[in-house]
UniProtKB/TrEMBL annotation:
Keywords: ATP-binding, Cell membrane, Membrane, Nucleotide-binding, Translocase, Transport. This is sn-glycerol-3-phosphate ABC transporter ATP-binding protein UgpC. One of its GO terms (molecular function) is ABC-type transporter activity. One of its GO terms (cellular component) is ATP-binding cassette (ABC) transporter complex, substrate-binding subunit-containing. Residues 4-228 form the ABC transporter domain. One of its GO terms (biological process) is carbohydrate transport.
Amino acid sequence: MAAITLKDIVKQYGDGFLAVKGVSLDIADGEFVILVGPSGCGKSTLLRMIVGLEDITAGDLHIGGKRVNDKAPRDRHLAMVFQNYALYPHLTVFENIAFPLRLQKGQFTDAQIKEKVEFAAKTLELQDHLDRKPANLSGGQRQRVAMGRAIVREAEAFLFDEPLSNLDAKLRGQMRTEIARMQRRLGTTTVYVTHDQTEAMTLGDRVAVLRKGELQQVASPRGLYEQP
Ligand code: ADP
Ligand code: ADP
């Protein structure tokens, strides 16, 4: 777990477009921050810069006190959960969750992998589904498998990019509760991007509102509601 600090972060794309125009934000260790704003305001760009999938044009990014601007994604120790939770259809739930650990060849024994996968499965109430294939799971269960992968990485922070936008309203409500519970249980620093007002108002400790590449407001959900 680690604090994430953004200082005057700028993103200018190759075509000259300024997508992020100097964003500063201190995210405390264990904090759950929601990033909201209309389509095209720069949410994904910001998240991708934090995880290292996009170069930072200017500014400083610190994770756990270390400047990581020039670090490769794998050296930032973050776990990103995307909306299209790409699970491997031919692998069981167990193997899908174990996948990031198997990639780090030789680092974990089978017993260690089993322990980590079972911990993640317990946290997400997937214990009874470990032998099943993704095709036989509900949308919510698939989403949980994707989160299980993030958990076994024992990441410094979780980054969510609109993870629920493909689910129907009922399932979205259920998953919201589950993500909030998981985050509280693990206490992992979390940045969660959404354009869904309900998610913004119910999930996080603080809400950061992005507009045209600039932070317009950062407040607790209640504080945000009280300001016109
Ligand atoms: P959001 O996630 O809030 O919808 P994005 O971060 O995806 O917004 O995009 C922010 C802005 O940057 C948009 O205007 C988008 O068109 C632009 N943009 C995104 N990716 C690129 C790119 N590779 N090259 C140029 N402009 C881009
Ligand atoms: P490879 O290095 O074999 O191509 P990957 O492309 O899956 O393996 O991953 C490369 C590195 O990128 C990983 O070591 C990991 O740190 C990082 N990475 C992969 N997937 C994610 C993810 N979902 N969230 C955060 N980082 C990831």
